[in-house]
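Supplementary Methods. Inverse-folding protocol.

Structures were first reduced to a discrete structure-token string of length 87. This string, shown here, constituted the complete conditioning input.
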């Protein structure tokens, strides 16, 4: 799923999309500072794995996917990995 930071999608729809996601990847060069903060806060409160990317390139996205697959989900019993991952 994708949210366009309020260009066509309503800004109010962001939390609905975040709630239905299994993991969140947020490229900070493509969305507003407010959207990054709201995304980060929502994911922390709901224990959603979240990767904040500095850029939106394919390499950064591939690195985020690698990091997500290598980490432990926060709902697991051992809770080893944090909800926020930084590639």
């Amino acid at each position: 799923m994708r949210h366009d930071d309020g260009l066509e999608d309503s800004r109010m729809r962001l939390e609905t999309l975040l709630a239905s996601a299994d993991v969140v990847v947020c490229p900070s060069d493509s969305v507003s500072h407010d959207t990054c903060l709201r995304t980060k806060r929502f994911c922390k409160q709901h224990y959603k794995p979240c990767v904040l990317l500095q850029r939106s390139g394919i390499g950064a996205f591939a690195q985020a996917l690698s990091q997500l697959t290598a980490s432990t989900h926060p709902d697991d019993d051992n809770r080893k990995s944090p909800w926020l991952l930084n590639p």
